């Protein structure tokens, strides 16, 4: 295959665009190299470019047809092997929704309030779970109170409570997962422009979405191995159990119950319990499913080790259309940023650090707590740098080169965030 320069006015469906006349990051195209599938993509190319380079077969190439096919396959495979970082950068830097909310406080100003809210919520969640286990009524007023406080904090600055979502103990998974899903749902709802009432409805549903797990035997809930068919059926029963509990609890609004009912439904219809698909799931259920899955796959469980937040976002992007509404997944990636708080990253200076807060305007330039020097010696004093201002030694802009796996070099990200395990 050879490359041919072509005016965008001459593009046709089926052509394979190899290069643009401008950097890929300045365009909305997710992949560096793609086959034109429809007229909409041609119109989009004409908006951004004057010419492109396309792949075209050499007219006089004397190769066996099989070799030519193999070359085409190789091109497609190369396309599919785009790095996580390139794909997520494309999503994260697409035009964003016009923000409904502006930060009213800094992380440092909000973290103390968030700590108190997190502690209060933790105490309430353990009480709620124990009440369900004993067959008692749920304290819906208490749930509404803490969710209301969380909503106000997230509106002021979502990074503070999101920081507390990094506190994870696998032996306390159900309780902490409920709190983390609530925090994530509220942050996502804020990003989507939900009003106060909508955020409260979403938050109550997220906080109580797994309440039915208290009706599942603990030996199944915490089994370290693969569940057999009977055990899996029992595990799935937490959804109808939870819905039944919430429906008989005074004061729990219908949209909140839909989060519990639909958080395991999947976009193509492969989920449970109803096998709903597409818009049948409803917005609250779709959001519940996205944040529940994200936290589940990025957390240590009895039966698996959690992946990095960055890798979790990449997986969920791959699962769009099949498991999740594609537009909502892309918005969730924009909400979280491709370098979520708590990510361990390597800079182009060679330094290793932990992302401590986001930059909601320049998503690729978060604030980072430096942990290791380029020679892997520890950074001697607490140093947090803002990547929008930080430079390399030769004056180049400092950037994140790659995201590292949790626990690498013995780094516990929580130690570098504004939280403590005692919170």
Commentary on this structure:
By secondary structure, this protein is an alpha+beta fold. It has three domains: 2-82, no CATH class; 107-336, Hypothetical protein af1432 (Orthogonal Bundle); 344-416, no CATH class. It is 44% helix and 12% strand. The protein has 15 helices and nine strands. It has helices spanning 39-48, 65-80, 84-92, 107-133, 140-156, 158-164, 173-192, 196-207, 218-221, 229-236, 238-247, 254-262, 283-297, 309-318, 326-336; strands at residues 2-7, 16-20, 34-35, 51-56, 344-347, 352-357, 367-372, 378-386, 400-404. The strands form two sheets. A five-stranded antiparallel beta sheet has the order 8-7-6-5-9, with helices on one face. The chain has a four-stranded antiparallel beta sheet with strand order 1-4-2-3, with no helix packed on it. β5 (344-347) and β6 form a beta hairpin. α4 (107-133) packs across α6 and α7 (173-192) packs antiparallel against α8 (196-207). The termini are far apart.
Q: What attributes does this structure have?
A:
about 10% strand; five-stranded antiparallel beta sheet; globular; alpha+beta; 3 domains; about 425 residues; Hypothetical protein af1432; 9 strands
